[in-house]
Amino acid sequence: MKFITIIVILFVIYTILLGPLAIIIGQASAPLQDLGAWKGPLVFACLFGIAATLMVPSSLMKLTAGAMFGFTGGLMAGWLGAWLGAMIPFLIVRKLGVSKARSWIDSKPLWKAFDSVAEEEGLTLTVLIRLSLVIPYNFVNWVIGATRIRTRDYAIGNVATVFPTILYAWWGAKLGDIVVVLDGGGPERDSMWWISILVSLIITIWGIVWIDKKARSRLETIIGVENMS
User: Fold this and answer.
1) Phi-psi region of 150 (alpha: psi -120 to 50; beta: other; left: phi over 0)
2) pLDDT (tens digit per residue) in 46-66
């Protein structure tokens, strides 16, 4: 219940923030949108990767992508951006900062347990982490490079970010519709339209909670740690 409450609060905050932000970003990003259905999202994905490296919340970036480019373009931009945002810090740590990060890992029971099975179960662990929100996305990107996980497994496993990105891009697209309506355009604001918005929010929250629950349970089993939340 506590986790669900946190998710609801975050979505409310993001919705409140993203409304005015979407208008500002939409105006500022007109050149991106003018690049076309593919180039615009690709450029945004590159900017997303840099922003995620600098610890900008991935979920907010995915919602913004959906609001800017709609569901399809937002999904492409959000998924590729999240993948890049995962790989850049990972490679930086792997090349430059392994020794310092490893001393931190050895002092944390959860990460020490993760590290002990990372080499053999790296692909599975990466997929489960990306499906679960129990360990913050940005934080993982910087720490996991110092574990024994194979670069190939981590790169392939991060493809799984597509699943939560589907939910964020969907709701982001709905937020984009809300912004258009509040700005005086878009579809007619009848009761069915607002109901569809509410249902979209409920489905998004339910999907995130359900995916997290399943992934967290499996992750706890593999690394032998209980109550990771």
Assistant:
1) beta
2) 999 999 999 888 877 887 888
